[in-house]
UniProtKB/TrEMBL annotation, chain A:
Its main location: membrane. One of its GO terms (biological process) is transmembrane transport. It is found in: Cell inner membrane; Cell membrane. GO terms for cellular component: plasma membrane. The lineage of its organism: Archaea, Methanobacteriati, Methanobacteriota, Stenosarchaea group, Halobacteria. This is Iron(III) transport system permease protein. PANTHER family: FE(3+)-TRANSPORT SYSTEM PERMEASE PROTEIN FBPB 2, INNER MEMBRANE ABC TRANSPORTER PERMEASE PROTEIN YDCV. It comes from Halobellus clavatus. Belongs to the binding-protein-dependent transport system permease family.
Length: 534, 390
């Protein structure tokens, strides 16, 4: 049986009008944890002074940079949806061959630091790049320009579409397929069914994923810098580079303002949300001959995003200088360090995300919505800015944990919390509230109903969120550099060390290990969610 | 790019490796000779393929070998205790040297924190008086000057300062240069000859040979220091004109100067602006047959000579230990290490540079510029923005 609840502005999602106190307090505490370090940004940014602030804001380049950023975010986000949603549909609802393999492969681009991807693409497809040389004998004198907007969109799409993919996938997995059967009996064709039944149901999840992609693009620095495309973050980093910390922070508050606008916009677009019964997915769509085309699509995306950087890095393995520095020797402890902090961050982010996501999915009102939106603030500022906020917080008020792993994991959680909140919230929305209510009438306490009924139903979203946080933490660099304990090297700081000194060949091995370990971890996470592919 | 040298540049790389191996054999013989001032440096019997830490002080280099003079670490005060080092220089470049110093002394623990220099300045500024930092090690004088301006440095002892000539350290004694980097013009020898590169940086915009074939990296700190020097030497309006002129010439932007040097060697552009060692790094990897060489301008902003250096932080727990650590960066072993692994100019006069380079004395940096003035980036950034370069 499929039920459908319309969620309207008046709000009739739950009969209990006011949210449970314990959950509210937990959500408030999480929101406060995110806001505290960010408040320092406001204090520091606003100390710059009105005259200089106005001068910065009214610079002639400001408008251009703003337009550039907006165009980049809109195009990349749209492209992420166009790639992420079909891939999610193919790997959840169809009989695409090697489903689990493709699920892992198309998630993996998330762990490639975008600057590594951008650098590899420039090397491969830039003027005088490897690809151009390959084609030169065939008489191809010029390949399309990789620099600029198109290159930035290409790279950012390839490395951020997994946000849409993973959230959409979680939502599709917990969707009730009886609705689709019903639609099919009403003589809707497959496309019509997708458009009228599936799409509305996964819309909150796609919106959450698109929001994550868009905000990531907005705050990313590496790609636009390598692609020579002038955006907000580039201006901020120029300021950092010239010791203008306070000005840089003021400029990143502009980013926060843009983010708040995007969050508001997204909340408007998200509009009416439906909660539907979930957990009954069984039927898969048979693709017939099209399955190979579907596989080709997955292979093309994963291939571009994974094979190009790996191939480029590998081609450099042999080219290191004769006296390669021993500091660059690979150590297995880098792997355990990376996995340790990423797993801790994923676990904490999911636990912290639960009350926030639950409240905002189940209850209307200012507070639940505010807590949820606040959880995005840390995600909106560039990593280095958030890292500095925590440097302040740690060195002034939490000396015992400063430059320890505790503060580092805290930083990851603040940065990536929206990834777990977004994924969880979408899953909560797909749980029919009448199910836990039924459990209560059968004598369960509300906590018991949550644990035995709701939690198992949101498991795909929970593990989807954990996977997102895990994979993004695996590649996080700027906050790691600012907050890691001395001598603590992760795979990504090691890649950075090699890359920054121009030892690209030495970056290849840890990059391959990063992919391999992340792929393995994805398999473990997928197993936890009770992957049901034979 | 370097990727290309893996495919098309195979033979030349092999030639280079052979040459390096041959040079290594000569090196072993050379190392047994004491330095010219009688202070024996370490001798090494390591094979050329041995780990390079065994080569510290050995004088071995990809461009041939030499003997090393200067004050050896063994003549310096012992180091003991715990030292937190904020290093803006990469672990890949200096990690080995720092471990080497740490291993010399059983009671010394160095806690290095590696990050980009400007970010470390921001971090130190944010930590304030609660900073655990003892020594800051920077890629340029600008970051050191920025810390000095914020009152975060302590004066180094006179006998440490005296290791290097006066123009390579702060007048106040707040910081000292440990190795040098000259601004230079890499040019592609297939397209240009040395005489095609003007000796006057200000005439570059009129140089038709550079049209649509010139590269620069405006976000890079050394480039900004160069523009700062131009602003101080030629004035703001001349600097604006120069920047506009170069843009009209079609100068392309790169993310960093190593990319510029490689692009020149690849023939993507015919010339550019980089620190001198990027060219040497390309040559060391691709071999001397790579079509890139170095030109220098004379007595102008294009010829400034910047330094990597160190300072003792105001939050240092043990000032003597911190100052003596900086002293070790000026030892014969460390100075040779910089010349050999990073192709920088040693600043201690007894140690010569390595590579296809003129000596420090043959360079003609502008005399009117004091290195600490180069930290004054604000007006530079404004000009770069107004002209649309940034």
């Amino acid at each position: 049986m499929a039920t459908e609840h319309q969620r309207t502005a008046d709000g009739d999602t739950d009969d209990d009008a006011s949210p449970p106190l314990g959950v509210s307090i937990a959500a408030a505490a999480v929101a406060a944890g995110v806001l505290l370090p960010v408040l320092w940004l406001f204090r520091t940014g606003l100390s710059v002074g009105l005259t200089e602030s106005l001068a910065l804001l009214t610079r002639p380049t400001t408008l251009q940079v703003f337009v550039n950023s907006a165009v980049l975010v809109v195009l990349s986000t749209a492209a992420c949806v166009l790639i992420g949603v079909p891939l999610a549909y193919l790997t959840v609802r169809t009989d695409i061959p090697f489903r689990r393999f493709w699920t892992v492969m198309v998630s993996l681009p998330l762990v490639i630091p975008s600057y590594v991807g951008a650098f590899a693409f420039v090397s491969a497809f830039g003027p005088q790049g490897g690809f151009q040389r390959l084609l030169a004998p065939l008489g191809v004198a010029k390949i399309p320009e990789i620099y600029g907007l198109q290159g930035s969109v290409l790279i950012l799409t390839l490395y951020t579409y997994p946000y849409v993919y993973i959230t959409a996938r979680a939502s599709l997995k917990s969707m009730d397929t009886t609705l689709i059967d019903a639609a099919r009996t009403l003589e809707h064709d497959r496309w019509e069914t997708f458009r009228r039944v599936t799409l509305p149901q996964i819309r909150p999840a796609v919106a959450a994923g698109a929001l994550l992609s868009g905000l990531y693009v907005l705050a990313d620095f590496g790609t636009p810098s390598i692609m020579r495309y002038d955006v907000f973050t580039r201006v901020i980093f120029v300021e950092f580079g010239s010791f203008g910390r306070d000005t840089a922070i003021l400029l990143s508050l502009q980013l926060v303002a843009v983010t708040v606008f995007i969050l508001w916009l997204e909340a408007r677009v998200r509009g009416e949300e439906r909660t539907t019964a979930g957990g009954r997915s069984r039927a898969t769509v048979s693709l017939g001959r099209w399955r190979y085309l579907a596989m080709g699509f997955a292979a093309l995306i994963a291939g571009l995003a994974l094979v190009v950087p790996v191939a480029i890095l590998l081609s450099w393995v042999g080219t290191g200088s004769a006296s390669v520095n021993q500091s660059l020797a690979f150590q297995w402890s880098y792997v355990s360090n990376s996995v340790l902090v990423a797993a801790a961050a994923a676990a904490v982010a999911v636990v912290a995300g639960l009350p926030v996501a639950y409240l905002s999915a189940r209850y209307d009102g200012i507070l639940p919505a505010t807590f949820e939106r606040i959880s995005y603030v840390g995600y909106a500022v560039p990593g280095v800015v958030l890292g500095l906020a925590l440097v302040y917080f740690g060195s002034q008020y939490a000396t015992p944990i400063y430059q320890t792993l505790y503060l580092l994991v805290f930083a990851y959680v603040i940065r990536f919390l929206p990834q777990s909140v977004g994924s969880l919230r979408a899953s909560f929305l797909s749980v029919d509230p009448s199910l836990p209510e039924a459990a209560r009438t059968l004598g369960q306490t509300s906590a018991g109903a949550f644990r035995h009924v709701t939690l198992p139903l949101v498991a795909p979203g929970l593990f989807g969120g954990a996977a997102l946080v895990f994979l993004t933490t695996m590649k996080e660099l700027p906050a790691t550099l600012l907050l890691r304990p001395s001598g603590f090297t992760t795979l990504v700081t090691h890649i950075w060390t090699a890359y920054e000194s121009g030892y690209f060949g030495q970056a290849a091995i840890p990059a391959l290990v990063l992919l391999f370990v992340s792929g393995l971890s994805m398999l473990v996470i997928l197993r936890q969610e009770g992957y049901d592919v034979k | 790019m370097d990727g290309a040298s893996g495919t098309s540049g195979g033979p030349s790389r092999r030639r280079f490796l052979e040459a390096a191996a041959a040079a290594g054999i000569i090196g072993v013989a050379g190392c047994n000779t004491p330095g010219s001032d009688g202070t024996a440096t370490e001798t090494s019997t390591a094979t050329p393929a041995a780990e390079s830490s065994e080569q510290i002080g050995s004088g071995r280099s990809p461009f041939g070998d030499r003997t090393v003079s200067g004050v050896s670490m063994s003549e310096m005060p012992d180091l003991s205790g715990e030292l937190t080092l904020y290093s803006g220089r990469g672990e890949a470049l200096v990690g080995e040297l720092i471990s080497y110093i740490e291993d010399l002394y059983p009671d010394l623990t160095v806690r290095p924190l590696y990050n980009n220099a400007a970010e470390l300045v921001s971090q130190l500024e944010t930590e304030g008086q609660n900073s655990p930092g003892d020594v800051f090690y920077s890629v340029n004088a600008g970051a050191l000057g920025a810390l000095e301006n914020r009152g975060r440095t302590q004066s180094l002892p006179q006998d440490v300062l005296e290791f290097v000539p006066q123009n390579f350290r702060a007048d106040s004694g707040a910081w000292i240069g440990t190795s040098g980097r000259a601004r230079s013009v890499p040019y592609n020898t297939d397209v240009l000859s040395a005489s095609d590169v003007p000796a006057d940086i200000m005439s570059f915009p009129d140089e038709s040979a550079f049209e649509d074939g010139f590269g620069w990296a405006p976000t890079y700190s050394s480039f900004q220091a160069f523009i700062t020097a131009m602003r101080l030497l030629e004035g703001e309006s001349a600097t604006r004109e120069w920047l506009t002129g170069m843009q009209e010439l079609g100068a392309s932007q790169y993310g960093d100067e190593f990319q510029v040097a490689r692009a020149v060697a690849d023939g993507e552009i015919s010339a550019g602006l980089t620190n001198h060692y990027y060219i040497q790094r390309v040559l060391a990897r691709r071999g001397l047959s790579a079509p890139v060489r170095t030109a220098f301008t004379q007595n102008d902003a294009g010829a400034i000579f910047n330094v990597a250096g160190a300072c003792v932080l105001d939050t240092a727990a043990d000032t003597t230990l911190a100052a003596n650590f900086v002293r070790h960066l000026l030892s014969a072993e460390a100075q040779d290490y910089f010349a050999r692994t990073t192709f920088e100019y040693p600043l201690v006069p007894a140690v010569e540079p390595i590579g296809r380079l003129p000596t420090i004395d043959e360079l003609n940096p502008p005399e009117e510029i004091d290195l600490s003035q180069l930290s004054d980036l604000e007006a530079t950034i404004d000009i770069l923005r107004e002209t649309g370069v940034l």
